[in-house]
Amino acid sequence: MIYKSVAALSRSLVSRSGFVRNMSESGRFNVYITRSDMPDVGVDQLRKECDVKLWEKPSPVPRAEFLKSVAGANAIYCSLSDRIDKELLDAAGPGLKVVSTISVGYDHIDVQECRKRGIKIGYTPDVLTDATAELTLALLLSTSRRLPEAQHEARTGGWVSWAPTWMTGPGLAGSTVGIVGFGRIGQAVARRVKAFNTARILYFNRSERPEAKEIGAEKVGFDELLGQSDFVICCAALVPETKEVFNKSAFDKMKNTAVFVNTSRGGTVDQDALIEALKTNQIRAAGLDVTTPEPLPLDSPLFKLKNCVVLPHIGSASIEARNTMSELTAQNILAALNGKDLPAELK
Ligand SMILES: O=C(O)C(=O)CO
Q1: Which residues belong to any copy of the D-isomer specific 2-hydroxyacid dehydrogenase catalytic domain (predicted)?
Q2: Which of 6, 67, 146, 178 is the most core-located residue (most Cβ within 10 A)?
Q3: Are 299 and 326 contained in the same domain?
Q4: How far is the CA of 311 from the centre of ligand 1 (A)?
């Protein structure tokens, strides 16, 4: 669909949302943003060229409100918390040209349905790779060297003397690290892990990755990776094939001393099986930046386990990454609305 036809469609929209209905009058496209606290840099770019409407709170827009307010939008600027499905696309109406998510993950978007309707999808690969890899290493070390537990002890009187076996955990040097999902983030994690003098880096991925050679990573089968790794890191996108791949059978195959880290999506893990594996010391510990659901309810057993570190999905939360993600999200929208190639389109 080209610019002109969107304009024509938009002219005929009956908007329930308060968007300017008649593009020929305003000459501007309608953009709906799903929360008020998206980084300014991208939002400001959009405001220069478009009529921007946003959910006024720094929290995900409630579904009913989203369905109501999105009517008449030509573009949606969303996050991974917003479900973009058939119902939502219907609610937006025929003028919708692009869905642009401030995330590299797109499991919250019905990609098939967007394709059917000729709606482009923008996302933010590359610009968050370093930030997410850094956080993965931070979480891995926090989990294996028990930093949250140690801090708690120091603050609450548990630190009575230096003690030779207290608060010990496995080191990375000389270890085998297995990475499941060897795309941009998996590779960036491998490069960083290597600097810790690991003995071997294994990876499991659908296809062989040419970059692995230079990194020094070996492609192995999933079961082999589970059985041999001291650290198992999940960097795989959530797609039907990766849903709950980390299940009881997978945890049973891991070493009892293994540390499991997940910075991809909670849906790759059967969480009940993980809780059981942690409770029974089937594995040593887990570090999770992602869970099911998110936010994780306060009464989740994961919060009660000393051998589990839970973070609130902050993988990409470096200031630089979030600003660049916001800019890219806006640029994807502006390009799509102006009939140009998106800088980062999900193909
Ligand atoms: O961009 C994503 O998909 C994220 O999960 C951000 O942390």
Answers
A1: 38-345
A2: 178
A3: no
A4: 13
